[in-house]
Design a protein that fits this description.
Layout lengths: L12 H12 L6 H8 L4 H15 L3 H8 L2 H11 L2 H14 L5 H10 L2 H15 L3 H8 L2 H12 L10 H16 L6 H9 L2 H15 L12 H14 L1 H13 L6 H11 L4 H12 L3 H8 L2 H10 L6
Helix pairs in contact: 1-2, 1-3, 2-19, 4-5, 5-16, 5-19, 6-7, 6-8, 6-9, 7-10, 7-14, 9-10, 10-12, 11-13, 14-15, 15-16, 15-17
């Protein structure tokens, strides 16, 4: 379930634009007013605000926000204000610029989005960067990482619920044989993970556990980074809430908060399943996600995160 809260009676887009304009003017920026508007508008409403703001004031709202805000609060507001497909394109581009750990962001985008959302992200990437996501991923990765990531970001899976149980049985056997032999980057392993629907993979992995007495993830606990990438692939495809809980725990429960990871999860899931993720987080760590965030962050950044969690009144 989504955590985003939108008022029952939303002000007109013209009024929202006027209010945002007033937040930028005068002595200092009114961050509270910005949060009260942008953290409570859905993607379609935010898109209309951006269009109307540009038409009314001749300014790009994103550039205004960039000028007026700072640090982690600025980054969070900017990625939140983007359309979901633009946001994924931006996050993917940033990931291709960085060191190997950013490959997990590419896996996240490829595996936790719906087939259509991934296509839209690729189209937005192409429009934004004048090249394809596949092209950049192939250029910026090597070896087994490239072998897995390129087909993942290129995939267009069947999105329905129908499964072939005979196929699930056959492919669970293939996966068991390859993983038992530690042939983690075998072509067949990558083919199955990169092409099968989420429903089909779920059936395959259920059969794997029933037939071989162990969850496939238990057999992928090697410290090797490629194996960790395979784990992230499977979790993102079949257990996305668990995947995001792990990202949040890693971002919060450590010395020094990983703000980029925290912001990414909150911004990308607030309109999708953040309430479900927050419930799973509390089950895992026995502390509400909002409280954990409040302990590790502060100021306008904390206020924006908690607003997107739908927990401002707690």
């Amino acid at each position: 379930m989504a955590s985003l809260t939108v008022p029952a009676e939303v002000p007109s887009v013209a009024e929202d634009c006027e209010q945002l304009r007033s937040a930028f003017k005068g002595w200092g920026t009114n961050e509270k007013l910005i949060i009260s508007i942008l953290a409570h508008r859905n993607a379609a409403q935010r898109k209309l605000i951006r269009q109307t703001y540009a038409e009314t004031f001749g300014e790009d709202l994103l550039k205004e926000l960039d000028r007026e805000l700072t640090h982690d609060f600025e980054k969070l507001v900017l990625i939140w204000t983007l359309d979901p497909s633009e946001r994924d394109a931006y996050l993917a581009k940033e990931a291709t610029k960085r060191w190997t750990k950013s490959n997990f962001v590419l896996v996240e985008i490829a595996c936790t989005r719906s087939p259509k959302e991934l296509v839209l992200a690729r189209e937005a990437y192409h429009a934004r960067n004048k090249k394809s996501l596949e092209e950049d991923v192939a250029y910026h990765t090597t070896g087994d990482h490239r072998k897995l990531l390129v087909p993942l970001v290129s995939s267009y899976r069947y999105g329905g619920d129908e499964v072939d149980l005979r196929l699930a049985k056959a492919e669970s056997k293939v996966l068991h044989e390859k993983i038992s032999d530690k042939a983690y980057s075998d072509d067949e392993v990558i083919r199955i993970l990169a092409t099968r629907s989420k429903a089909q993979l779920n059936a395959t992995l259920n059969h794997y556990k029933d037939e071989y007495g162990e969850d496939i993830l238990k057999q992928l606990e090697d410290e090797d980074e490629f194996v960790a990438l395979l784990r992230a692939t499977i979790k993102g495809l079949v257990y996305p809430e668990h995947y995001f809980v792990e990202v949040l725990r890693d971002a919060i429960n450590r010395r020094g908060t990983e703000e980029d990871h925290l912001s990414r999860v909150i911004a990308t899931r607030a309109e999708v399943d953040l309430k479900t993720i927050a419930n799973e987080y509390q089950k895992r760590d026995s502390i509400p996600l909002g409280r954990a965030i409040a302990k590790d962050t502060g100021g306008d950044y904390e206020n924006m995160l908690v607003a997107l969690l739908g927990q401002e009144e707690e």
